[in-house]
Design brief:
CATH class: Alpha Beta
Mean pLDDT: 92
Distance between the termini: 29 Å
Order of helices and strands: EEEEHEEEEHEHEHHH
C-alpha cells in the first residue's frame, strides 16, 4: 500500500505488468507535476516514427525523436531536457531533468548547435490525472512507483526501459521485470 505523500513530482510510474490499456501497457511515465489539483506525466518509452521538425513548421532541422507522451491533448507538443537554466522558464522536475521553457529560445539554441538531440525529448500529448485519481489507481494496483534517474530518459533504450526501471527496484520487481509480455510464451 502506498501513502499519498510518496507520490511526488520527479518519480517514475511503472505500469503493472498486467495492465491492458494500450496507452500505458509496459509504460514508464515521468511524473512532472503532482499536486492537489491533479497530476501530469509523460510516457518515456513509446517512440513515434517522426521528428520534431516534421511536426512544427518553422522548427530548425533537428535529428530528434518524438515520443507519445500520453492520450491527453495529443495536439500539443511538450519537451523535457537536461540543459536547465540555459532555457529560461523551464521547471526542474528532478536532478538533471527540466520541463518546458521559452520555446523561441529553444529554437535559437538548437539553431546555434547549443542543444544536441541527446539533451532533449519531445512528446506528443501527455498523461493526466484529476485530483485523487492517481492515488486511486495506485490503490487498485495499476502502478508501481520508482525513483527517477536522468539516464532513463536520456540514455536508456526505449524498448527495454520498463524492464530496466522495474529491475532496478530489486526484490520482487526483478521477477516482474522478466515476465513475458505475452503469456502464451510461458
Amino acid at each position: 500500500m502506498i501513502e499519498k505523500d510518496e507520490i511526488l513530482t520527479g518519480k517514475v510510474l511503472l505500469a503493472e505488468p498486467f495492465m491492458l490499456d494500450p496507452n500505458f501497457k509496459r509504460s514508464a511515465v515521468l511524473l512532472c507535476d503532482h499536486g492537489e489539483d491533479g497530476s501530469v506525466g509523460f510516457i518515456m518509452n513509446k517512440p513515434l516514427n517522426m521528428r520534431i521538425d516534421d511536426l512544427i513548421e518553422d522548427f530548425p532541422e533537428f535529428e530528434s525523436e518524438v515520443l507519445f507522451g500520453g492520450p491527453v491533448q495529443t495536439d500539443t507538443i511538450h519537451y523535457i531536457h537536461n540543459i536547465g537554466d540555459l532555457l529560461e522558464d523551464s521547471l526542474k522536475v528532478a536532478d538533471g531533468i527540466y520541463w518546458g521553457g521559452d520555446f523561441e529560445k529553444l529554437k535559437f539554441l538548437i539553431s546555434s548547435n547549443l542543444i544536441e538531440p541527446g539533451n532533449i525529448r519531445f512528446f506528443v500529448g501527455y498523461a493526466g490525472w484529476t485530483e485523487g485519481q492517481l492515488f486511486e489507481e495506485f490503490n487498485l494496483g495499476s502502478w508501481v512507483l520508482a525513483d527517477m534517474d536522468a539516464n532513463y530518459l536520456f540514455k536508456t533504450e526505449h524498448k527495454g526501459m520498463w524492464q530496466q526501471v522495474m529491475y532496478n527496484k530489486g526484490d520482487l520487481y526483478t521477477v516482474l521485470a522478466h515476465m513475458p509480455d505475452n503469456f502464451s510464451w510461458n
